[in-house]
Amino acid sequence: MSLLPDTTALSAPETVMTAAEVAKMLRVAERTVREMAHRGEIPARQVGRQWRFSAIQLHRWLGPEREGGDPRGQVVAGRSRADIEEWASRKIAQYRPVFEELARR
Q1: Based on the domain organization, do 18 and 42 belong to the same domain?
Q2: pLDDT digit string (tens) for 28-40?
Q3: pTM of full prediction above 0.85
Q4: Where are the beta strands (DSSP E) in 27-66?
Q5: For residues 82 and 13, what is the distance between their CA atoms, to the nearest angstrom?
Q6: Any residues with CB less than 8 A from the CB of 84 and at least 6 apart, and which?
C-alpha cells in the first residue's frame, strides 16, 4: 500500500513554462518577461527565485486579439483600456495649457 495519493483520477497536468520559453513565444527578452512577472503584468508564479508560467493562463492573458477577436476591454499592466483612456484624457486636459503656451511661442 502506497502512502502517495492515487492520481489516476486527476486530469493531465497543464503545461508549465519557464521565462525563457515565454520570452521565445512572445518574442521579447527573457528579462522583460521576468520584469513583467515581478510587476504582476503577466500571469506567473514564483518558485524559489525562478518564475513559472501556465500555458493555459498565458493563452487567456493574450486574450481575444490572438484569435482575431475584439481587443477592447483587455487588461494591460493591471488596467483596463477604459481606465487607460480616462487617465490619458485627464493628462491631456492637465497639460493642454502648457501645450497651448508652447504653440504660441
Answers
A1: yes
A2: 999 999 999 998 8
A3: no
A4: 45-47, 50-54
A5: 36
A6: 76
